[in-house]
Write a structure and sequence with these properties.
Number of strands: 0
Helix content: over 70%
Number of domains: 1
Number of helices: 4
Length: about 120
């Protein structure tokens, strides 16, 4: 379990890093408009899900069942959701908007798994 959790913690770190970079670029590198909003939204959701994935991974290390699956779903969902918005902002390829809900569904699954992990956790 430890090696897999190390990977998800590292992934959460990269997701958080990209969220900060996207937010900074949106604030300082773009004018107003949809690309700026996409970067801001991607950065916001990326940061939230990086922190949530990190928390879920730490809960998994403490033995909470389903928390590791939650961590992976949160990290993957946050990555797909945010990356699709970042790519739309930088490339203008609007078809990537069809990918964004896939990330949203994974994020929802991650939150559901995290709730399940919490409700089923016994010491």
């Amino acid at each position: 379990m430890g090696h897999r959790l190390g990977w998800v913690i590292g992934w959460a770190g990269l997701l958080g890093f990209s969220a900060v970079a996207a937010g900074a670029f949106a604030a300082h590198g773009l004018g107003d408009g949809k690309p700026k909003a996409w970067l801001q939204t991607g950065g916001e959701y990326g940061m939230i899900h990086a922190a949530a994935a990190l928390g879920a991974a730490l809960l998994a290390r403490q033995g909470a069942r389903h928390a590791e699956a939650a961590a992976w779903a949160l990290a993957a969902g946050g990555t797909v959701f945010s990356a699709s918005l970042y790519l739309m902002a930088f490339t203008g390829q609007l078809w990537l908007g069809a990918v964004t809900p896939v990330g949203g569904l994974a994020m929802l699954a991650g939150w559901g798994l995290l709730a399940w992990a919490g409700f089923s956790w016994t010491d």
